[in-house]
Amino acid sequence: MYPRPRILHCTVCGQPVRYRVPADDNRERATCTACGHIQYENPLNVVGTVPVADDGRVLLCRRAIEPRRGLWTLPAGFMELGETLEQGAARETAEEAGAQIAMGPLIALLSVVHVGQVHLFFQARLLSLAFDPGPESLEVRLFAPAEIPWDELAFRTVRRALEHQLAGAPQLLIETIA
Amino acid sequence: MYPRPRILHCTVCGQPVRYRVPADDNRERATCTACGHIQYENPLNVVGTVPVADDGRVLLCRRAIEPRRGLWTLPAGFMELGETLEQGAARETAEEAGAQIAMGPLIALLSVVHVGQVHLFFQARLLSLAFDPGPESLEVRLFAPAEIPWDELAFRTVRRALEHQLAGAPQLLIETIA
After folding, report:
1. In whole angstroms, what is the distance from residue B4 CA to residue A168 CA?
2. Cβ contacts (< 8 Å) between A44 and chain B: which residues?
3. Rounded to a whole number, what is the distance in Å from the CA of B81 to chain A's nearest CA?
4. Is the ipTM of this complex over 0.90?
5. Which of B7, B9, B31, B86 to mutate to test the interface with A (most CBs of A within 10 A)?
6. Residue A109 in contact with residue A91, Cβ under 8 Å?
7. Does residue B177 contact residue B111 with C-beta atoms inside 8 Å?
8. DSSP state at residue A159
9. What is the layout of strands, in order, in the sheet containing A38-39?
10. How far apart are CA B78 and CA B61, in angstroms?
11. What is the pLDDT of residues B79-125, one digit of tens each?
12. Residues 6 or more apart from A163 whose CB is under 8 A from it?
């Protein structure tokens, strides 16, 4: 998950910006001192899956990249332009785990306020037990519910999605991660 | 809803960017020709409510701004950094309609692929019938189900959220608006 450096220059003309409140607004925005272009910054969506085998085991990936290299995560990443939420979640599952899935219902929708993200996890059924870890994963494996490495999970949203899945995901979990 | 112009200059150093595929990536990104900074572009969330009075009438706002000035919409707008989905939806409802609400369940989650947006609508219960249209609204009023101005709605996502609300919103509507 890439960082978002403070905006210093205008994306349209390249001149310096200043953070100020535009006339018709109530928040400071990066505003170009030369051409007046306003560059907005808004939360981003991270989309992923909770891939479950027919025997109830859950797929996790061990991260090959920072942050949290070496810790376990669900396949997930930033939603891209040109795709739906489900397509993004399927793409990340293919890229990070090489897993074949049938997409299921959305089970967790988490506002991660301190990093300006919204995390969305779909339940997915694994159609095969053959995986192919991508460059972002050191390892991909299945965990029975009793084996989940709770102390070695990369992100709190992954923990919440897994807890909700193991509780049977009776309804969509909508929650704030402060 | 503001447009997103093509990125021409680097937000870090102001020099020109070129769209190219970074080494560890598979999509073209705006990459600085001088400092190498990569500026990502991703879908944005639009959050809003379907405010319903106790007699079943639904609140709509007539847009005072482009696009679709003069047409009717649900209170909604871009989610901001530092807020949850629900806080964003409540803020937009206050800003555009001056309405007091109790937030209800999420009823529609719509991937609007062609504009790179995800629209999320929460059901809301109106706590008062006193409104205060903000600068983005020409007018705010309640419509009985039979009175909804279907031919004068601003956006297809508004239509889908309203149709789902009037069908009783039996479950979360997850859909793609192509």
Report:
1. 41
2. 42-43
3. 5
4. yes
5. B9
6. no
7. yes
8. H
9. A17-20, A29-32, A38-39
10. 16
11. 999 999 999 999 999 999 999 999 999 999 999 999 999 999 999 99
12. none
